[in-house]
Amino acid sequence: MKKICCDQIGALIQIQETDSEIIRINAALALVEGRIDELNVKLKSFSDSISAKDSEIEVLKKKLKDYELEILECERRIDRGQSHIKSITTNKEYQAVQREMDDARKRKSMLEDRQLELMESMEKLEAEMDSLRKDYVQLESFIESQKQEILDSSISERNELDGLSSIRQNAARVVEPPLLSRYDRILKLVGGRAVAPVERSICGGCHMNIPPQMFIELQRCKEIMYCPRCHRIIYWAGCFKDDND
């Protein structure tokens, strides 16, 4: 019975040590993922800036197209007026057509001025876009190299994590399923450590004294026991030493 209990506790201790390392490595890998996420956000922010500029250019293109269509309409109005004015017989009608043609010419001139301003603005934006695209390609290349460096630096941790998972699986085969399930529940509840040694009647988990009679029973190593205060699985380290005597 004593050997069975010690075997179970020994396996749980190994699982606990493995889980502690897994938690540490996962925390380190989380930082790695966080750094990669930051780089991705930076690249996306740059990409969004390019998209915003591209949208501005598209708006200007639409305005230019609208101006072109309206200028054509003004030209048609002028042509119609010139054709119509040849057949006019009254001064009043002549003045009305002439006014309409003058309005069309003024409107056309104003639209052409705006069109020119838009074309200048669009040229500037397109030049900015060309520069941004070149900068984006350089930034993308730099960020990809940075990400690869970060991933390369964490290869050993990832490999170690795989090895620890294998060690845990092997140790878990020694532990009875109900006890292993309870260990997992305790670990989830208390975090960090679910198995704690007891020395001089003090639980290594909560650092509180356990009852004297419980400490006596614990030293016999005949059954799995739990701290009455923090509910961690507890063991007396001396039981392993006694087994070797």
Describe this structure in words.
By secondary structure, this protein is mainly α. The chain has 2 domains: 2-27 and 173-244, Helix Hairpins (Orthogonal Bundle), CATH 1.10.287; 42-157, Helix Hairpins (Orthogonal Bundle). Helices cover 80% and strands 5% of the residues. The protein contains 6 helices and 4 strands. The protein has helices spanning 2-85, 91-153, 155-172, 177-190, 212-220, 238-244, and strands at 195-199, 202-203, 225-226, 233-235. A 4-stranded mixed β-sheet has the order 2-1-4-3. Strand 1 (195-199) and strand 2 (202-203) form a beta hairpin. The chain is rod-shaped and about 130 Å long. The protein starts with a helix and ends with a helix.
Order of helices and strands: HHHHEEHEEH
Task: List the strand order in the largest sheet.
Answer: 2-1-4-3
Question: What's the average pLDDT?
Answer: 91
Helix content: over 70%
Could you tell me the strand content as a percent range?
Answer: under 5%
Q: CATH topology of the largest domain, which one?
A: Helix Hairpins
- The helix tally amounts to 6
Specify the CATH architecture of the largest domain: Orthogonal Bundle
Radius of gyration: 41 Å
Classification by helices and strands: mainly alpha
Spans of at least 5 consecutive residues with low confidence: none
CATH class of the largest domain: Mainly Alpha
Largest sheet: 4 strands, mixed
